[in-house]
Fold:
Amino acid sequence: MSEHTITVAGVAVDTRHWIGGERVASTRTFPDVSPIDGGTIGDISRGTAIEAAAAVAAAKAAFPAWAATSRAERARVLHAIADGVEKRIEELAIVETTDNGALLRSHRRGVMPRVAHNFRFFADWLQSLDHEDFETRGHTNHVSWDPAGPCVLITPWNAPLMLATWKVAPALAAGDTVVLKPAEWSPLTASLLADIAAEAGLPAGVLNVVQGYGSEIGDALTSHPDVRRISFTGSVPTARRISASAAAHLTPLSLELGGKSPLLVFADADLDLAVGLAVEQYDNAGQVCLAGTRLLVEEPVAEEFTRRFVEKASALKQGDPRDEATDIGPNIHPRQLEKIDGFVQRAVAAGARAVIGGHRGDGQYYAPTLLTDVAQDSEIVQEEVFGPVLTLQTFTDEEEAVRLANGTRFGLAATVITGDPERAERVTARLVAGTVWVNCFFVRDLQAPFGGSRLSGVGREGGTWSFDFYCDVKNTVTAPNGWRNHG
Structure:
């Protein structure tokens, strides 16, 4: 076994970069720490501008051949990658749980199968991607999607492999080459993905994975003149930095950023459904950008809703995410835990009341928290906490519900729970959000557009929208009777 290989629950993981089909080590490393027990998993190669330049160069060199590869062959390779993921679901699941603390049962049953589905979906969508030709004054218009070039994909730590492959799969399907930079707090499954892609026959340089810490490699990637697309999921401050880097070369961006999503419960709602969906917002220890962290409940049912919510939320089991019975695992990092607790303590000092929780547990665990008596303009209502912390406010009518729901700088998602379909239609039409769920939560079809409004992002990905972003969309206009001199 290489000195650069670590073993995670019996799974060998290479800690080096993957550049141009080869493993490349850096002279410096950074520690990867498990949130489960705070122990160091291993030391990861710490990339710099040198590795960034090498990865982009490898992607650029591999681009012409991959772009010229037929749709059918690209799709075949993507299906082969999906096959490789499915063969290693258990390995991927335990490595990612160890690395980021999310529930092992969720990784086994939902997340890793979805990773494979990401590749299969975009492989199949690619082969059906087409617009019917249309005519303009007798001229024929033909729309095509041309591969754009090397892409830099920067992904977050809360669902590392699934969120990475939401970007990697369509980019590869589009005929682009990729430099993937995973989050430093959860780097391991991206390294395994490189192995799986190579075993599936993806040509060298088409997928490159570079590890890094902070902005030292990210800045070099996003400012590189040979990069033709940048897709980022993460925080607003980092997105501003990336946007500034990309501006010099007008590199197109897709940004999926923070959320402070509302979950609206109307008096005519099924309260059992509403409470279940509200408690579900603690999923992944609250580390979900789409989470409906602002519970907005119509006054006539607020007291009963709160009673049922407290009863159900108090029954959640918090503990080791590898335990099948665990409902909530740890938060990702000590810095994140400090951030979460800071939000809560400031809110309580300003007059908020913790109906449940409001404190740390042992290690990197934070008790599921519900805060009431919060003002609309308060920090806890306006800013993304990214932890198991919800707020509850009441409203008297639809007008106030919509005003409160839209009353932040964000607009990623919203959930509406009501028994009245006409009300659902009225309210959803007025909500500022990229995705609205009615009487459900977290249902996402990959053919649907995904992204945020306001500070929650720029652009949409999913289905044809992904190809619109990862490709240069071309319209070819042909004159009638233009071939009379042919032959």
About this structure: The CA atoms of residues 141 and 477 lie 5 Å apart.
